[in-house]
Every structure is written in structure tokens, then in C-alpha cells.
Write a structure and sequence with these properties.
By secondary structure, the chain is mainly beta. The chain has helices at about 1-15, 125, and strands at about 35, 40, 45, 50, 55, 65, 70-75, 90-95, 95-100, 105, 110, 115-120, 135-140. It contains two helices and 13 strands; from the N terminus they run αββββββββββββαβ. The strands form four sheets. A six-stranded antiparallel beta sheet has the order 5-13-9-8-7-11, with no helix packed on it. A three-stranded antiparallel beta sheet has the order 6-12-10, with no helix packed on it. The protein has a two-stranded antiparallel ribbon with strand order 1-2.
């Protein structure tokens, strides 16, 4: 029974890491490294606070895809200040709830399918010159989304 338990656990882990590619300009999901604006990994320091999401590399203007099948619940704005990148969505379904920031969504509610276009990356360089442009993804419960990428 040990080998079947290991196989079952391995299958569970493989299924957990099956989010779709997030960005059209990248061959695979890649977490932003460190640049002049900080680092893109989960729980990295941001001055007095921690980064409670991950930054997936994506060029400004690229198509952004739904990572899983579910629905767009609502608009989610990271700053609330109306700047050029202050937009995003909250998604749920397939056992997940996430927020995706810095995108201009094609809609703010409704069903989505894994891999479907959900928006376009906003012009990050206009707000953070020299940053590695990216989609910010955070779990609604603020746990680490990295294993799903």
C-alpha cells in the first residue's frame, strides 16, 4: 500500500501544479527575479511589508490567460489610486481563489476556461521604470501560489 500511497500523493502534487501558462510573451510561467524595484518571489521583503504573492514575467501589452477553469468574481485593484496599472480581477474555481493584478480584463464577471484570454498586461514601465514587467498573482488566503505555477 505504500507504493500506491506514494503514487496517489505524486498524482495529487502533479495535479496541483497544473495552472495554464499565464502570459503570451513567455514560453512558460517564470517568476520575476530581483531588479531595481525588488524581487518577485513569495514572501520577499518589500520594505516594511512582505510580498504575499508571486510576479509572473510578462511583457507590457501581452495577452494574459486564465490559469484554471472557473469564474471571474470581481474587479480587484491593487492600489486604489487609479494609476496606469491599478486594475485586475479576482478568480475562483477548480479549488482555487486568486487575485491577478496589473491587467486590463476583458470582463469583470463571468465564467472562464483554463487558457482562455482574460486580459492584457497594463504598461508597468509607465509606473515602475526598469522593473521586469509582470502579472502579480496572489491566493485569496495569502498562502504561497508558487507550487501551482
Amino acid at each position: 500500500w505504500v507504493s500506491s500511497s506514494v503514487l496517489l500523493f505524486s498524482s495529487f502534487l502533479a495535479a496541483a501544479a497544473q495552472w495554464a501558462k499565464i502570459c503570451s510573451s513567455q514560453p512558460a510561467n517564470k517568476i520575476r527575479g530581483c531588479d531595481s524595484q525588488g524581487c518577485g518571489g513569495y514572501n520577499r521583503s518589500r520594505g516594511r511589508r512582505q510580498h504575499m504573492g508571486v510576479d509572473v514575467v510578462c511583457e507590457d501589452g501581452s495577452v494574459v490567460y486564465a490559469p484554471f477553469t472557473g469564474k471571474i468574481d470581481r474587479q480587484a485593484r491593487p492600489y486604489g489610486n487609479g494609476n496606469a496599472i491599478d486594475n485586475g480581477v479576482q478568480l475562483s474555481g477548480s479549488g482555487f481563489c486568486i487575485k491577478m493584478f496589473y491587467i486590463k480584463p476583458i470582463k469583470y464577471r463571468g465564467p472562464i476556461k483554463k487558457g482562455e484570454k482574460i486580459g492584457i498586461l497594463l504598461p508597468m514601465q509607465r509606473v515602475y521604470r526598469g522593473i521586469t514587467s509582470h502579472v502579480h498573482i496572489q491566493n485569496c488566503d495569502l498562502t504561497d501560489p508558487t507550487p501551482n505555477l
